[in-house]
Amino acid sequence: MSVAPDRLAAVTEEFPVLRRTVDGRPIVYLDSAATSQTPQVVIDAIVDYYTNHRGSVHRGVYDLITEATELYEGARERIAAWLNWEAEETIFTANATMSLNLVAQAWGHANLGPGDLVVLTEMEHHSNVVPWQQVCAQRGAEIAYIAVTDTGELDPGSVGALLDREPKVVAFTHVSNVLGTINPAAELARQAHAAGAVVVVDGTQAVPQIPVDLAVIDADFYAWTGHKVYGPTGVGVLHGRRALLEEMPPFHSGGHMISQVFTASSTWSELPGKFEAGTAPIAEAIGLGAAVDFVTGIGIDAIRAHEFALTAELLERLTDIDGVTVHGGVDPAARGALVSFGIEGAHPHDIGEILGRDGVCVRTGHHCAQPLMRRFGWGSTTRASFGVHNGPADIDRLIEGIHTVQRVLDL
Ligand SMILES: Cc1ncc(COP(=O)(O)O)c(C=O)c1O
């Protein structure tokens, strides 16, 4: 994998917030899996829209609107091309949660019925669980979960047994936000299609961390969120297969998503407008386009290689500390750039607070994955996750902080 060493070496300087200090030392941001930080180019793109081009896209023909529309649709085209999908089958939403609700409510409500089966996995984020629970309750369908092994993979026996039941939907995460496990998305999609299911992939943790080629994965729907890919909050993406998007009803309704509105009924806009009701997240989508340019400028292969090296080092150093347990598998090749761990005798909340006092930012809690927490008997965990701006010195600070936790709590 080619690395852009000069750009990577200096990339921290592109993130204004990382200039913040705690007790004279720079903050160590190890929480990109919760939300990434924002490079200056993304901030600049948003400011440029508000300063020079603000207009309501697709709502007129004067210069400001034409420019805003070009920026907004240009962002869509670059985002779709980056992941190898068609722009018209690429819908802007508010976040991954809304993308998954769109699929569950628009496709699921129209296609699920009593006795139908929806297959999820035990490692899903709540946003790929609760929307399915809602639609299954509405339509009388059933949910079953693919089991997770003790080392944090999807159990192939459980996959086979559930596919034998010919589910209508198989929905799974590409990369686990707790265990880091990279699921074999293309292979799972192939098996699920062979069983006759519609395949929905939550790509939220994959898109920022590993190369994603949607044509290879070949899912029916692929959802992700902008704020974990160096983009702003308030914008997410749903890629869908044209035939399904065309046949399913709209999710939200109102302005922009229509073709004709009569007093008694309406017809729908062409894709992707049919699924973009109301005024779009214009600045946010433009910001996300700039974030994708930032990522492609460095190269997702280079980012993966950089974060892979950091993850491998962190796994090795954590497993060397007495009283520290790494959750999930320890092969960095099978993981995204995040590691959940526990410190014997320490509550994750205390760990997070003591690390935070030293300027080390990590996520603690149930990570919006309570079924997985119950599966492993964890109340909560501590998670360190990497972004492109991290380096080995950040791992030193985390390890130093873990020793501080053990000393302060007298462990
Ligand atoms: C795997 C996964 N899916 C979905 C989400 C939800 O993302 P959002 O809150 O931006 O909708 C997250 C966020 O943590 C996640 O990690």
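^ pyridoxal-5'-phosphate complex. Residues 63-82 form the longest helix (20 residues). The chain has a mean pLDDT of 97.
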